[in-house]
Design a protein that fits this description.
Length: about 425
């Protein structure tokens, strides 16, 4: 896949074109670049901007468009009206998804667009957008309206949609209870997507969000899935941000191995299953995926927090880390010792209806009785290992599901196992 990033050069490599190269490379995607302006900046201050000429901009576009198949385009810093007009004329004829990140200011205070060009931005850039991703401040400037009780996010997003963008995502519109929500307006649909907030000033998160968004769209994910994906990717990049210079931290993109991308893809799809919140237990859900031949839970990737219920929404709290899950990872480790091909698992709420469906399906199921747990097991805190071992002891065939009905003070639970996260997901869809 080839994605094109159009924007400014940032010598600190925290934002702009350099940041997008890091993001796309982490997805194993080839990153084409078109530079609209050279900025000088570091983690403390913003220096000069030198926009490129229309001539070289047009020539860059022609070079790239005539040669490569382009699967998606992200446009960020455009700086002035000349640049905006060249981009409009070259890009309007292309039929690929375009994400526009309407960057107006850098975190360190530099203006990334001339104020006299904002009207042209509205007129020529916004209509190109499959998705536009303003933050609250940018949405207010573009719509010329302050967000308040009367002027709701929906109203502001509708104003921007009227300017021609197909879908609007206003990022960080609302923060409460340690959560940060994005507002999404699609053609005939609007909703909030919430995630865990990290209060850390950083350089790069906005770029990471829009870059992850174009990747998801180019992979044919729908808008809701793409927003979730971008949100989780950005959460991770902020969580892992590093103090590389003397000023603010720069977001960090971990190289994604196959295990990581398969699991995060499946978690995104799991969170999108209709009414899935009903299958999340009180102790919440973890979804894990193991390296081949795991020696301990440290070889098993899981969510450092959990997949949690928040009303009717499901929120992925925390990021993917090896050793991130204790319980589900221990269950998987035990299963994997007997059946090495089983490398992924998830825990779901115990419900009679689910058990009935499991029994009707062709899935192989077994259970254990926590009330039979020997004292020494309880003392050693190895209940799960003992439970899974007893459930699979007599099975020659690979088991798909193991459950227990709980005991005093212990919540009953269903664990679904599979060879990989996608395989687990398919089994879940059969039984919920
Ligand atoms: O984060 C927005 C952004 C985009 N592009 C360039 C930037 C910045 C922020 O500093 O410098 C070139």
């Amino acid at each position: 896949m080839n994605l094109l990033s159009i924007g400014g050069s940032d010598p600190s490599s925290g934002a702009g074109i350099q940041s997008d190269i890091k993001t796309f490379s982490s997805f194993n995607v080839y990153c084409l670049t078109i530079i609209t302006a050279i900025t000088s900046q570091n983690t403390s201050s913003f220096g000069m901007i030198e926009p490129v000429s229309q001539k070289i901009l047009k020539n860059q576009l022609e070079s790239v468009i005539s040669d490569f198949k382009i699967d998606g385009i992200k446009i960020a810093m455009v700086y002035n009206s000349q640049i905006i007009k060249v981009l409009y004329h070259q890009l309007k004829k292309l039929k690929v998804p375009i994400v526009i990140d309407p960057v107006l200011k850098s975190t360190t205070g530099g203006s990334l667009i001339k104020s006299s060009s904002i009207e042209d931005f509205r007129k020529f850039m916004i209509p190109l957008a499959t998705v536009i991703t303003p933050n609250k401040f940018e949405a207010e400037i573009l719509s010329k309206t302050k967000i308040n009780a009367k002027n709701t996010p929906k109203k502001i997003a509708k104003i921007i949609q009227k300017m021609g963008a197909k879908n609007i995502v206003i990022t960080g519109i609302e923060t409460k209870n340690n959560q940060i929500s994005d507002f999404v307006l699609e053609k005939n649909n609007n909703y909030f997507i919430s995630g865990e907030k990290i209060s850390k000033i950083n350089h790069g998160s906005g770029c990471n969000y829009s870059a992850a968004m174009i990747f998801a769209l180019a992979k044919n994910k729908n808008i809701r899935e793409s927003v979730r994906f971008a949100k989780q990717f950005t959460y991770n990049s902020i969580k892992n941000s590093k103090n590389l210079g003397k000023g603010i931290a720069i977001t960090h993109i971990q190289k994604h191995d196959k295990i990581n991308s398969e699991l995060s893809d499946a978690i995104g799809q799991f969170a999108e299953i209709k009414n899935i919140c009903k299958n999340i237990p009180e102790c919440q859900t973890n979804f894990v995926y193991s390296k081949q031949t795991p020696k301990s839970t440290k070889d098993i990737l899981g969510i450092s927090g959990r997949i949690v219920k928040a009303g009717r929404q499901v929120i992925v709290a925390g990021n993917l880390t090896y050793g991130g899950s204790k319980h589900v990872a221990t269950a998987l480790l035990t299963m994997n010792k007997k059946f090495p091909q089983i490398r992924s698992a998830i825990n779901l709420k115990y419900q009679n209806a689910t058990i009935l469906k499991i029994k009707k399906s062709k899935l192989l199921v077994s259970s254990y009785d926590r009330s039979q747990e020997p004292k020494n097991v309880k003392l050693k805190n190895s209940t799960i290992e003992w439970g899974i071992k007893s459930a699979i002891k007599n099975s020659k065939k690979v088991l798909d599901v193991v459950y227990h009905k709980g005991s005093f003070g212990k919540e009953p639970m269903i664990i679904v196992f599979g060879e990989n996260p996608n395989n687990v997901l398919k089994k879940i869809l059969k039984i919920i």
